[in-house]
Amino acid sequence: MRGKKLFAAALSLLVAGAVLVTGCGGGAKTTGEKKEGAKYTFRLAETHPPDYPTTMGDKKFAELVYERTNGRIKIEVFPSGQLGEEKAVIEQVQLGAIEFTRVSASPLAEFNKQLGVLSLPYIFDSDEHMWKFLTSDMGNKMLDGLETSKMKGLAYYSSGSRSFYARKPIKSLDDLKGLKIRVQQSKINMDMISALGASATPMPYGEVFSALQTGVIDGAENNYPSYYSSNHYQVAKYYLLDKHQRVPEVLLVSKAVWDKLSDEDKKIIKQAALDSVKTQRELWDKFEKESEAKLRAAGVTITEVTDVKPWQAAVKPVIDKYGPEYKEVLEAIDKARK
Ligand code: GTR
C-alpha cells in the first residue's frame, strides 16, 4: 500500500507538467494566460479513507465546483493517502505537482510559521471558540497568508480535539512519563510531548499502526474519528481524554495553479470550499459521536481528565517559548473567547 504511494508520489512529479497541459484540454494555455471558460482536471490529496468526514467534505467541495462550472473543472479526490503522506503532499502542492489537498494545520505549520499558533496546547476552550476565531478576520488572514508559502488556503474543516492513547493503561499525566509517543511532524508538537514528560517520535500518519503494533512506539494522540478509522485502537486500547489540542484541518490549493485561474474560477472555487464546510462540520459531529460509541463497544478504556490545570501548567513552557511569536494572533484568539 505505502509502496504504491511512493510510486504515486514519484509519478505525480513526473506528470506535473502534463496535468496542467492535459488539464487545460478546453484550450487554456500553460503560459500563465488566464483564460475564461478553460477546462481542467485537478487532483486533491486526502490522507483519510473515503467515508471519513474530511474526505466527504473534499467530495462536496469537488461536486460544487463541478456543478458551478458546468463540468469544466473536475477535482478528483484521492483518499487514503494514495498520493503520499501529508508532508510530502504539501511539498508537491508547493510545486504545483498536486493541485489541491486537505491537511492538518500541524504539519502545514512547518511550511508556514504563522499557522503554528493553531498547534499550541489548550489555546481553544471549545470547538465553538475555535470556530469563532477561524471565521474572524485574523482566521481568514491566516488562510491568505499561505500565499507566502506557495499555497492558497481555501477553508478550515473541523477536527475536534486530540488526546493521548497507548498500548498500556494511561489514566493520568504521570502515566505519560517516559513513554515513546508518536507526533505529527511538527516542532511545536515535539516540544509539547517533551514538556509532558514523554519522548516524542515524529512519524507520518500511515506508519503509526505498525509502529504501535510492533512496540516501536508506546502510544500516539489523535481525535476519536482518527483513532477509530485508523484502527489504532485495536493495538493501543487505552485512551486518555485530556483534549490537549484542537488543530483544525485546512483545504488548500497550490499557488502555482491558483495564479493560472481566471477571476471567475477563483471565485467559484473559494466559495465552493466555504460552502463545503457546513457538510464537513455536520458529518464531523456525527462521526465523532459514532466513533466514540464504536470505540466503547470495542472495549477501549476511555479515561476522562477532569482537571486540565496540571496539564496546562506542564505545557506552559511551550506557550512561553512560542507565545511571543504569535502575540497578535493570541490576542485575537483571546478576543474570540468573549
Ligand atoms: C488527523 C488529521 C490528519 C493527520 C493525522 C495525523 O487528525 O486529520 O490529517 O494529520 O491526524 O495525526 O497525522
Automatic annotation (TrEMBL):
Task: Mention any Pfam family matching this sequence.
Answer: DctP
Q: Which UniProt keywords apply?
A: Signal
Q: Which GO terms describe its biological process?
A: transmembrane transport
**Ion transport recorded as keyword:** no
Keyword Signal attached: yes
The Swiss-Prot or TrEMBL record annotates one GO molecular function as: carbohydrate binding
Q: Where is the signal peptide?
A: 1-21
The record, for CDD domains, names: PBP2_TRAP_SBP_like_3
Q: GO terms for CC?
A: outer membrane-bounded periplasmic space
- Coiled-coil annotated spans: none
What the entry lists under NCBIfam families is as follows: dctP, TRAP_S1
PANTHER family given in the database record = DICARBOXYLATE-BINDING PERIPLASMIC PROTEIN, PTHR33376
Protein name in the entry:
TRAP dicarboxylate transporter, DctP subunit
Q: Which organism is it from?
A: Thermosinus carboxydivorans Nor1
